[in-house]
Amino acid sequence: MPTLLEEFLGVRLGGSPYLRLHSVTRITVPFLLSLNVLFAKDLPSVAAICFLSFALLLLSGAPLRVVRGYLALIASVTIFIALAFMLFTKVPGEVLWELQLLRVQAEKGVWEWSIVVTDASLLRTLYFSLRILSMIFIATLFIATVGDRDMLWGLRRLGLPAGVTVGASLFFRGIGFFLSDFAVVKEAMEARGVDFERTSLAKRFMLYANALIPLLSLLVTRSFEISTALETRGISPGTRLSGSYHSAPLSRGDYIVLGAVGLVTLAFAGWFVCG
Amino acid sequence: MRVVEVRGLKWRYRGSRAHVLKGVDLEVEKGELLAVTGPSGAGKTTLVLALTGVIPQRLPGEIEGEVRILGMSTLEVDVAEIARRVAVVFEDPEIQFVMSTVEDELALSLEARGLPREEIREKILWALELVGLGEEFLERQPHQLSGGEKQRVAIAAAVAREPELLILDEPTSDLDPQGKEEVVEAIESVRDSLDATVIMVEHEPELIERFADRLVVLDDGVVVMEGEPQEVYSRVEEAKRHAVYPPEDFEVAVQLGLKPPVRRELLELAVLNTPLDGLCSFPRSKGGEVVVSARDVWYTYPGGVEALRSVSLELRRGELAALMGPNGSGKTTLAKVLAGLLKPARGEVRVMGRPIAEFSRLELSSLVGYVYQNPQHQLFCQSVFEEVAFGLKLRGVRGEELERRVTEALRFFKLEELRDEHPFFLSKGEKRRLALASVYALRPELLIVDEPTTGQDRRFGEQLMEILRRLADSGKSVLVITHSVDLALKYADRLIAMNGGRVIADAHPLDVLSDPRIVREAKLKCPLKAELCAIAQRRRRAQP
Amino acid sequence: MTERAKPKKRVTWAHIVTFVLATAISYVLAVVSSAIFPVLGAPGVSALYVAAAIYVPLGIWMGMWGCLAGYISCFFLGLWPSGYTIIQSFVWSWADFIEALAPAAIFRVFKIDPDFSVRRGWAAKAFPPLIALGSIILLLGVVVQVLWGATLGEPFTTVYVYSVYVGLALALIGVVLGLSVGHRKTWAAHIAGVVLASVLSGVWGAGTLTLWNLPPPLPAELFWPVFTGWVAGDLIVLSVLSTALLVALTPVFKRTGLYVEGWWA
Fold first, then answer.
1. Domain that holds residue A272
2. What are the TM regions of this chain, as residue ranges (chain C) (predicted)?
3. B80 and B217 share a domain?
4. Could you tell me how many CB contacts below 8 A there are between chain A and chain B?
């Protein structure tokens, strides 16, 4: 069954033991890991989480090229965070480098705008960057190992009504509808003479309004047709659909993994409280 | 036992001025297969919704009369309750697929009944087999299925519930010929195996004749004709007035002044030198100046699918060319390459003698107009007038000239009275005409139209092709992608047949359809008229 | 006997399916916007958050459904590709809920039946950039005053004063033009909704990303740049794009019966 990563980006995972775990496990592990990020208050703890989430990502069989794609994002985030600490504040510490950008003699004092690089600001930048990196690894682990079907069957087993479970399925179908419709609408605008590449940013922005009109019209049409089809199948929003068709028990491996990650979470919580 | 009883049914949608159903009386006996036909906008789908209880329970409006299904009044019994015994398959296979796999889709309605796992599995497999799909389809996702397969899954999902009444609302309308054939076989199989009453809304007379015990014609919200299909079709002129076209052999026989015999008899008559004058008159334009030419064009999609392989052709002024072939043969790809919407990997495309790459998007779209299959994809504005004006405004046309050109286009496509209407509220046919008008207003030299008659009744198809014929006769070049061989034979000067990314035939429709090899390869359905006229042509040539 | 079939006001599949499909569209647009128009290294925050043009009008048309569409699309955006934790995303996403709620509430509290028909096309084109620009200049002036003018006085105070005059003037001209577009109440409610939505969602959004959020994913020092970028971007998107959609599609939602007078049905 394709995972979200395969559906969104067409990236298919190779087989790995992690993927054979129960869907409940594959959903719970990233959730617990994301709790750990909340407990990381210093550099060593956030580095540990970063390492752990990266290791799990590798174990899951997720191709590293997906992570590579995030490097540009991480690099820009790191640079901007660093600039935020250097441009907008002076983090107390040993000043490593300073440059005055602007100096204004104001009525009640002097306003200086400087770039100030301190050792503490660099460490704080590193902390935030590692934290974001951890969150990205965990998010990637989730979408690389969980498919929409896993989530839907999970919602079913929770006993949620059809309005939620079928709605969740339609969310993923909706993404597919929108992407294909958008491609056609854009092409149709080009067929009418719109040249997106050679248009100014402002005009292109306005043209997107014209593109959204047929997309939303199609949304309304589809929603009526889909609703009618659902009604005539005897499924109303409040109908409870059993989750028994796809239920399977957790295996020993599931319990081991869940137990291990649970213990790690407790350890981080303890570190947060006592450390 | 009466399964369906409808008495004096009238229905008006909220916000609508006119009633859609104006007093329908209908009865369907148990075990019957009733066909319902009529022109687009007659109220057929509204009737279907009324039979399921969705009207009036879920849609706001005004109702009069009574509808009883399996003894249940649709005014009193909830839709969900009715749906336990009544199943519906709609026209659009895409919107009926709400889950992410075939298995989940089939299981959905069964789970609502709280059936045990094993029973659900059993019913799923049984239903799949009934519609000709194997177990390997269980894990397939919607985007991996063809239109015909999706519709068969929808039918399987309906029959898995073992309904007492099965309603099929134009189940083959949106499909290509292969898809249609698959669904027809599925219906045949279901009909034989399921002990259910069936109501089938359909345009195709051949399907109606094949399946229906009785035929009801709905027009302008009332039942206007009723009886056995043969009986209804034999009243040819009256049926045609209600946009109901009889099967081809009926029509041909009437045209020849014969009592409607079967196909085989007509063919025998043709071979035996019976005069076929009047039957075999087709447009034949040699065409003038070349508007667009393609030479050795290849196109490969990013996934590696080779959609066009060494395609060469010329489109000329004054010509109406039909582009035909099975799904995946490259028709739409070729059309988009000719319109400059796709860039070929190899080969050359020229417009008015100049390489296509030399044109800006604005210039090119003024020379080559493209109309998409689903008109909703290309309606960008909030009034009919604004829609037609959209392309003109992009070109800086304003004031009186804008008004004049828009009005001219609206008049040509009979949309003048709707100029202030919101495009969303136009009927399907009106939307198609609006899409055409918006492109026509730009005065392109070549007009490419993608499957304009899909999902429409024959009368609309004829009207639309007449308009395109007029455009060709006025000096434009027109290329129509279509699956309708009848319309291509009647209106086109040329039939370009494709398969596997190649053009396998490019000649007069009669000449192409006379070649059984081409017909087989391009998966075309050869109309009877073509067969008869081809025989007559061979006879003429054989005479000294 | 004619029965006026007015189905009971209850939540139907039409509401749910419209909401779900709109959420899907919003999510895709959110991902695309945050990738193409990022704001100062805050993942998920976009200088031109086009998704708002979907769920904010949906809030006006369908009440809570629009607010939920905003919330859920932002929640998923937070998870992927922005990489925030579930809890951080849970808290942050209320920004988009608030963004849709503000205009929806204005229309419902003041019982205004939205009529976005345009009687003066030129005014409809002119007012959005005036309001957006005026508000942005005003906002920048306020930020300058808060950050520096209050403590340091001149010349920051002068910058603030002129920004306020110019910004207010432009915005007021925009408002007057906006009211002349068509149905006064509708356009007044819409203008107020656009400004309120942008500011309130900016406060929550920037605040939860930088100041508070168990813990916040980004440093506190980024609050003002993120807030300014957020509000400016929202003002542009809501005043230009969502206005165009409201004009074009309000008749569709009303005539099809999808329009919700209350909050749910």
1. 1-148+246-275
2. 12-30, 36-56, 63-80, 86-110, 130-148, 160-180, 187-207, 227-249
3. yes
4. 162
Domain containing B10: what range?
Answer: 1-84+213-241
Measured between CB atoms, which of A176, A193, A229 is closest to B143? A176
Eight-class DSSP state of C113? -
What ipTM goes with this model?
Answer: 0.87
Do B93 and B177 lie in one domain? The reply is yes
Q: Chain A window 170-209: which residues touch B at a Cβ cutoff of 8 Å? A: 170, 172-173, 176, 181, 184-185, 187-195, 198
Pick the residue of A8, A192, A240 with the most B CBs within 10 A to test the interface with B by mutation.
A192
B320 pLDDT band (50/70/90 cuts)? very high
Are A236 and A265 found together in one domain? no
Residues B98 and B76 in one domain: no
Surface of B (75-134) touching A: CB under 8 A: 79-81, 83-84, 86-88, 90, 92, 95-101, 104, 107-109, 111-112, 114, 116-117, 120-121
Of B15, B56, B382, Cβ closest to residue C3 = B56
pLDDT tens digit string along B453-497? 888 888 889 999 999 999 999 999 999 999 999 999 999 999 999
Q: State which residue of chain B sits closest to C246, comparing Cα positions.
A: B382
Closest Cα to residue A229, out of B45, B162, B95, B111?
A: B95
Give residue-wise pLDDT tens across range B237-278: 899 899 898 888 777 777 777 766 567 677 776 666 666 666
d(CA B136, CA B126): 13
Residue B315 lies in a domain: no
CB contact under 8 A, C85 and A34: yes
Q: Does C10 touch chain B (CB under 8 A)?
A: no
DSSP secondary structure string, B239-256?
HHHTT-PPPHHHHHHHHT
HSE (CB half, 13 Å, CA atoms) of A124? 22
Task: Report the DSSP pairing between strands B72-73 and B354-355.
Answer: unpaired
SS3 content of chain B, % helix, strand, coil (to 5): 40, 25, 35
Is residue B510 within 8 Å of residue B533, measured between CB atoms?
yes
> C231 CB contacts (<8 Å, ≥6 apart)?
C135, C136, C139, C198, C199, C202
Identify from A184, A199, A218, A245 which residue to disrupt to test chain B contact, counting B C-beta atoms within 10 A and taking the largest count.
A245
Count of structural domains, chain B = 3
CA distance B443 to B437: 10
